[in-house]
Amino acid sequence: xxxxxxxxxxxxxxxxxxxxxxxxxxxxxxxxxxxxxxxxxxxxxxxxxxxxxxxxxxxxxxxxxxxxxxxxxxxxxxxxxxxxxxxxxxxxxxxxxxxxxxxxxxxxxxxxxxxxxxxxxxxxxxxxxxxxxxxxxxxxxxxxxxxxxxxxxxxxxxxxxxxxxxxxxxxxxx
Length: 174
Fold this sequence. Notes:
Elements: E1 19-26, E2 30-37, E3 42-50, E4 52-53, E5 59-66, E6 79-85, E7 103-106, E8 112-117, E9 129-140, E10 143-145, E11 150-156
Parallel strand pairs: 3-10, 4-11
Antiparallel strand pairs: 1-2, 3-5, 5-8, 6-7, 6-9, 9-11
């Protein structure tokens, strides 16, 4: 009797699917079940940014998981990502926004997690300022940092200035 063979390319499974369940019916009426787990590492990336504005409009970064084809995925364990504020940021951590922690956790079973940028209103005339982050490393979980590892939130200032020009008699006498 010939032995049936089954070949499965686990990488061809959709990214959100971590487990494939296949029932086989072999001609001799033997029934077999095969479970195929796809444990390829995903990658974390900055999925989106929402800008902020003084005095009360907060911004956020959304950090997400995807497979190598760019499909959203979940993980069976929490994914902890460390990030840093880039030196090129023009907004000051703790002065223009509530201090950021430097880590974000994507909970097991979730696709993404938010890093809120909570605006601190001030009375300085500053113009728009940026909060720029860089995803540094995955410190826990089965993922790596992807190519889209940087994000920017712009904080719009609410102060304005008025320039008044006062003219008068410009004659001088000696």
